[in-house]
Amino acid sequence: MEHLMEYYVDQWKSIIANCLNELAFQKELKDAYLSSQDIIAEKPPRPEFGDIGFPMFSYAKQFRMPPARIAAEVANVCNIKTDTEKPIWPGTVKTAGPYINIYLDKKYVANYVLENAEKEFWESSPLFNGRRIMIEFSCPNTNKPLHLGHLRNNVLGESLSRIMKEAGAEVKKVNLINDRGIHICKSMLAYLAYGEGRTPEDEGLKSDHFVGKYYVLFNRLKDEDPSAEEKAQELLQKWEAGDADVIALWEKMNNWAVEGIMATYRRQKVSFDEFDFEHETYKLGKEEVLEGLARGIFYRAEDGSIQVDLEDIGLGKKVLLRKDGTSIYITQDIGTAIMRYNRWPFHELVYVVASEQQYHFKVLFEVLRRLGYNWAENLYHLSYGLVNLPSGRMKTREGTVVDADDLIDELTRLAANEIADKRREEAVGDIKDVAEQVALGALHYFLLQVSPAKDMLYNPEQSISFTGDTGPYIQYMGARASSILRKYKNGEGNANQGKINVSLIVSDSDWSLMRLLIEFPHTIEQSAKNKDPSILAAYTHQLASEFSVWYRDNPVLNNDNPDISASRLAFVIAIRETLRRASNLLCIPFLDAM
RNA sequence: GCGUUCGUAGCUCAGCUGGAUAGAGCGACGGACUUCGAAUCCGUAGGCCGCAGGUUCGAGUCCUGCCGGACGCACCA
Fold first, then answer.
1. A360 touches strand B (CB under 7 A)
2. pLDDT per residue as tens digits for the range A176-209
3. Which of residues 89-108 of A touch strand B (CB under 7 A)?
4. pLDDT tens digits along A557-589
5. What rounded mean pLDDT belongs to chain A?
6. Is A387:A460 a contact under the CB 8 Å cutoff?
7. Strand B and A509 CB separated by under 7 Å
8. Residue A446 and residue A461: Cα distance in Å, rounded?
9. A537 versus A112: which is more confidently predicted?
10. What is the tally of helices (H) and strands (E) in chain A?
11. A476 beta carbon < 7 A from strand B?
12. How far is the CA of A243 from the C1' of B10 (A)?
């Protein structure tokens, strides 16, 4: 089953094409043949112009007529044609100057929406059917806890995964834990210097925060011991050599870090299908590079390192393997990509990684292409911008990094205060839990609302606000819809004595919402196609906002007419369901009460 | 310097891939609660869409140049 809006538009495109061809035939214009793909459809800017618009400008040349006249004549042909061959999805054809506008049959659409509110209308889109899409995101270092930047990464990856899945794809979420390297050795060194064998429990710290504390302490160590950097390097070499003591310490601290990070994932409600660990993958790719060297794709530089020359496409020269034969970042990424493809041949692999690594991914993709992997065409770097705060940029050294757990704590506290202020304790039940769901809704919506490519400003106060363009606002509207249903189920109102009659929900204000509902699948496809949850975020806010206006003007249960009650109730069910689905795709917890 | 990217209301952001009078939210000002939750809603004010060219019937959207910001240009990740 095609989606309603798509189906409508495609159908009308082909009708308009037929009518244009008919007109061309009548005018004996032989070269004017058009297929439905040539027809440009548009969403009219105002409701008076109907539901689908077709501008006629571009046909003026071949028809040698002014656009307005083409519109008039085509509309004529259409009206005759639709009389004889009735479209499956009915509508009325009108003109407005150079535009042909289609007015959909409101009763027909209303009937469709109500009948399918919880059924196939909401089924996943066919756009990505059968597509295997791998999405890599998060990829934390295990020397410190997650911060605000990771939260944007996580929610982008998680939301995009859900959207792609909703659009029909088979999605595999993967995470590569960076659990080795010089940064971890720094935490280890500082722990050796100041830790005195203590554990996170001893200090009452979440385990990843405990590790992070020693990473910060490394700066102090550097001041006290000028050779600290060198010692960290030594530690890394010992680690690579398999020194038992070093490995044991690494395992201990690494587990603490990973354990804490996983706890944050659970809290943020993001999850992964597969984890890879750098300590297992960091040597991958070396053979590939050596083989590329043997095949003459790469070359050995004078200093002994193996490099690739990408000057011809403006990417310069890039080292792929150190002169001592050891792997670097890009070496292992080459190996990891190949391993992943062999393990699960994907149609597309999306890397959700900050924009600062754009160059890296260009090189990586090009190297894989030159190695002859044709699937390298299907690698995609979803580059996203930095998250800044109203107070300025986050900097580790200045201690202005916003910790992920602390931020969620703070947002939760603010939400709990609000619940208390509004005297909603009894209605919500578990305040702490609901407050945290509101905190997540606030955080996630705010982070997703901005197009990924852009740097953004995160304003915690504004994000948690219950009015305006925020997550809690969307949650509130969902809760209001739920509240109406709850009252109905408790026997309030007389909807159960009425019969659903679609002609009772075709007013202008009904129609505005109805149209939004049928655009939901199309919006998901747009989001999936563009890999951009912000499109869906904007849609969801609009849906919530229009529902807010609608329920103020259209009493559902408080209505003398049982048929109106029943019909509006069915409508509320459809709206609530859409809001619930949309919220879920945006990682905004749906709440029945807040 | 080179590359990538962004520049839209006082602030934070949209603008459906080139179409009809450029939209939201916040903030400001003014209104609406004996009626399904006022954590809401309505109204008003606020714009040479960074600047200048170009393509087009038509440009916030595409191409070029300039200006301004961000991020890259490691045998770090």
1. yes
2. 999 998 899 999 999 999 999 999 999 999 999 9
3. 96-97, 99, 101
4. 998 899 999 999 999 999 999 999 999 999 999
5. 90
6. no
7. no
8. 11
9. A537
10. 23, 13
11. yes
12. 61
Distance A357 CA to B1 C1' (A): 21
A558 touches strand B (CB under 7 A): yes
Residues paired with A300 in a beta bridge:
A306
| Nucleic strand B near CB of residue A472 (< 7 Å) | yes
Q: Is the CB of A283 under 7 A from strand B?
A: no
Would you state the structure tokens that stand for residue A415, as one six-digit string? Answer: 């939400």
3-state secondary structure A1-31: CCCHHHHHHHHHHHHHHHHHHHHHHHCCCHH
Among the residue ranges A64-68, A122-126, A423-427, the one predicted with the least confidence is A122-126
pLDDT band at A79 (very low <50, low <70, confident <90, very high): confident
* The pLDDT of residue A28: 82
Residue A11 tokens, joined? 């159908």
- Domains of chain A, each with CATH number or no CATH: 4-105 (3.30.1360.70), 404-585 (1.10.730.10)
Q: Whole-number Å distance, CA A477 to C1' B77? A: 43
Using the CB atom, is residue A41 less than 7 Å from strand B?
A: no
φ/ψ region of A392 (left if φ > 0, alpha if ψ in -120 to 50, else beta) reads: left
Q: Which nucleotide is nearest to A44 (CA to C1')?
A: B20
- For A533-559, the pLDDT digits (tens) are 999 999 999 999 999 999 999 999 998
Q: What is the pLDDT of residue A3?
A: 44
Å separating the CA of residue A93 from the C1' of nucleotide B32? 40
- How many Å apart are CA A332 and CA A349, to the nearest integer? 16
Instruction: Quickly state the pLDDT bin for A63 (edges 50, 70, 90).
Output: confident
- Looking at residue A87, its pLDDT comes to 60
Which residue's CA is nearest to the C1' of nucleotide B35? Answer: A558
CA of A174 to C1' of B6 (A): 29
Query: What are the DSSP E strand ranges found in A81-208?
Result: 91-96, 99-104, 132-136, 170-177
Q: Is any atom of strand B within 7 angstroms of residue A551's beta carbon?
A: yes
Which residues are within 8 A (CB) of A28 and not within 5 positions of it... i.e. 6 or more apart?
Answer: none
Q: Which chain B nucleotides are covered by protein, judged by CB under 7 A?
A: 2-6, 12-21, 23-27, 35-37, 39-42, 57-58, 69-77
Residue type, A482: S
ipTM of the complex: 0.95
Inter-residue contact A566 to A499 (CB < 8 Å): yes
Tell me which residue has tokens 């909603």.
A424
DSSP letter string, A520-575: HHHHHHHHHHHT-HHHHHHHHHHHHHHHHHHHHHS-SSS-S-HHHHHHHHHHHHHH
